[in-house]
Amino acid sequence: MENVNDLKPSDIGRAGGQVTKLDKVMDLPAPYDKPGMEPDFKEVKPAWQEKYCTTLDGFVGVDTLQRPKTKEEEDEFVRKFLSGLEKIFTDANNGALQPLSLTFDYCAKCNTCSEACHIYEASGHNELYRPIFRSEVLRKIYKKYFTKSGKLLGGFVGADIDVNWETIARLGELAYRCNLCRRCAQTCPLGLDNSIIAKEIRKIFSQELEIAPTPLHNKGTVLQLKTGSSTGINKAAFLDNIEFMEEDIEEQTGLKIKVPVDKKGADILLIHNAGEFVSWPENPAAFAILFERAGLNWTLSSSLVGYDSVNYGIWYDDTQAKKIVQAQQRAALELGVRRIVIGECGHAHKAAAVVGDRMVYGEDKVPVESFLPILWDAVQKGAFKFDPSRNDFPVTLHDPCNLVRGMGVVEPQRNILKIIAPKFREMTPHGVYNYCCGGGSGFAIMNSLNFLDFRNKVSSRMKFKQILDAFADTVADPSIVKYVCAPCSNCKGAIRDMFEYYEATAKFNIHYGGLVDLMVNALADLPRPFLTFDE
Amino acid sequence: MAEIVVGDRHIPLDEDGFLEDASMWDEEVANFLAKTEEVELTEEHWEIIKYLRKYFDDFNVAPPVRRMVKDVHRDLQTIYALFPSGPGKGACKIAGLPKPTGCV
């Protein structure tokens, strides 16, 4: 294993063991600046080495990427990958061809993007995690097989890479060391986007090799198309959940609310990430309370996929993504609603409103909007009477990348927090310059083998640092509740795991939750607080 | 893939120790899974396990935790005291329910 600073993209094709190993990660601020405040990386198990690709950095993100048993299997794997690589540069790849080609051809390797990347920073500046590192590997492979100069001159023109199962598998793993947060693209002087390359590699693996992390595909998209939700919640379970939610709202708040389901001709079809019903039921409950108070004409849908906004396909497979977009659109058309509104889920915003626009369009497309401007509008119209003293604890805001950097929805959530949370403070940096929670692009649910270690210690590390910095005045005092407002299910999952890993709730009383939950907590006429911090 | 051997049956488990196939569950399997969780099953445990099985039979999915807490009339601390790995990784696992999926 070489010194991390000497690592070159061609080393991905090197024979032998692990390409690099993480040892010195970025320092955390107080009270995590002392030794023993976080668990160490765990050693890679020999059984994993035999079965999976552990030879990149020792982590396994892709549990379905397993070692071939025969030479034929290995050759087939390489052949299919190369064929897929050729395909992504053809007209058929019309969703990404232009930005992909520009990024592929014009990168000046100035490395401005490296310092923008939270994973590179958190890794202690390990070369492997520079945003352009995997792009360079892909360029070398492409050059070697698909350019005249590369075929003839090889290493003299940058086609110096050995290509075999190990090379491609390492590249497949490396495509899952990027959160697709696009902070690198934001800083690139040429406007190039290395996250597109990471995503296209994932796409080749899924569409050509049928390899994608189980939580994203088999237990994600496939389950969603079969049962209606990636959580496995079917229609009957969904309806039962709603009934339970109504009872729960009444018990918690005394409010009698009939949650509208399948209401034909409503203005708004609200779609939640169905994970909320399982893990954070107070969130859809808070939506119901606020939407009713705001007098909105809204409904939920009980149709297949109509009650689950997630679309994991946008992270790994265009075909799967399109199926989900179509199913959600179908649910909206069935009800004859004027618009779909996405609840607190970042990637669902991007999938339904941005990516979806290229998959379903014209008269068939029901417009998709974010919940945030609608809520801010209701606040401005005086729909809610708030008593901010109910939120009299330090609050900071996490900006979900897809919603904020990706779609420019920046101000409504801040405007609302400034009204309902007297001790609100921003993270540094924030807004469109935020850092990812570390759970982006599927990481939040990829819990196989030792991948959780990579997430908690590396990809979530910068966000944890930002949270500690934002609460620097009170973090050491466990008697003071601190609240990270994260209006995104995926981010909440990553932040929950982060707080468990670093024992941040247990030791320092740092909590997390959504925006609507915090709004309802501030409603002046509720008999008792909506939020409880007794976990 | 790991597996457990209960009597003469080989029962596959996923990497986190959940049953791959919920239909292979019975009380003997529950007892076996409880041992891997270092839980001695009492009447109180069985009451919760039976509730989870019933919910799973009705809806083919595990109940949300908040729902479970209410339906079994016990707070979360009591559930953790009974199943130290918690409602999902402990109670649901012993009850043979599949591992939670999606953004949960």
UniProtKB/TrEMBL annotation, chain A:
InterPro entries for this protein: 4Fe4S_Fe-S-bd (IPR017896), 4Fe4S_Fe_S_CS (IPR017900), Cys_rich_dom (IPR004017), Helical_ferredxn (IPR009051)
Ranges for domain 4Fe-4S ferredoxin-type: 105-192
GO molecular function, one term: metal ion binding
Taxonomy, superkingdom: Bacteria
Keyword Transport: yes
Key words, A-Z: 4Fe-4S, Electron transport, Iron, Iron-sulfur, Metal-binding, Transport
Annotated ranges, domain Cysteine-rich: 395-495
The protein, known as: 4Fe-4S ferredoxin-type, iron-sulphur binding domain protein
Species this protein is from: Acididesulfobacillus acetoxydans
Automatic annotation (TrEMBL), chain B:
Keywords: Cytoplasm
Subcellular locations according to the entry: Cytoplasm
A single GO molecular function term of this UniProt record: sulfur carrier activity
GO cellular component: a single term: cytoplasm
Organism domain of life: Bacteria
Cited SUPFAM superfamilies: DsrC, the gamma subunit of dissimilatory sulfite reductase
Active site: C103
GO annotation, biological process: tRNA wobble position uridine thiolation
Sequence similarity: Belongs to the DsrC/TusE family.
Name of the molecule in the record: DsrC-like domain
